[in-house]
Amino acid sequence: MKFPTLHSWDLSPKEAIALQKELAQQIDVERPLKKCALIAGADCSYNRFSPTFYAAVVVLRTSDWSIVEAQGVIGESPFPYIPGLLSFRETPIVLQAFAKLEHRPDAIMCDGQGFAHPRRFGLACHLGLWLGIPCFGCAKTRLTGDHDEPGSNAGAVAPLHEKGEHIGNVVRTKNKTKPVYVSPGHLIDLNSATQWTLESSCGYRIPEPTRQAHLHVNQMRLQDTSEPEV
DNA sequence: GCGACAG
DNA sequence: ATCTTGTCGC
Fold this sequence. Notes:
The chain has helices at residues 13-23, 87-99, 123-131, 190-199, 208-223; strands at 38-46, 52-61, 66-76, 107-110, 135-139, 157-162, 165-171, 180-186. It is an alpha+beta fold. An eight-stranded mixed beta sheet has the order 3-2-1-4-5-8-7-6, with helices on both faces. Helix 2 packs parallel to helix 3. The model has no long low-confidence stretch (mean pLDDT 96).
């Protein structure tokens, strides 16, 4: 896959925040996703005290959830983990994995927030803007916003609000298990993101795209002989 | 000042 | 994110 360079990743935390505020103005979270034959999942993995980073993207066929393609990259992250600035830590390497992709997915599911972010510019917004592909976030825990507990059965949804704004949905993907936090990133609306989250939750709490990407990066990390096993 | 805080 | 065994519940 090819995509243009939008900006440098060599930034200080203050510069990163300024850039988020600037790029957030370009985000489109109103567009319903019409066609989605191929959906990609992206994820990262790493050791506690090693700078080595593993990123993977897996492309799935939505008709039967079979894996069409998987690409991974091993590198180092130039940015520390700071709540609210996760995209500056993970996106540079994730983009390298997308660059190796031969298939162009119709949508992308990220392991983190999209619009449900303090500055409305989470990981999924940033990745979607770079790639120009509909992208949304499916996080395992909350970053910001308030909500009621969704019903206890799969399919239950509760709105995530902040300052009077509907920024995402808390979605129960499996009976009696913790819900996930869904929000649009770019070129997709909240309803489409929520529907595809439920559609791809094949009996697990984590939807198939992100679940497969997670399995993939973990395989990469455990098979990397250049890293000292703890 | 205090508490919260994606991965 | 990662470190970790068994265990309670459906």
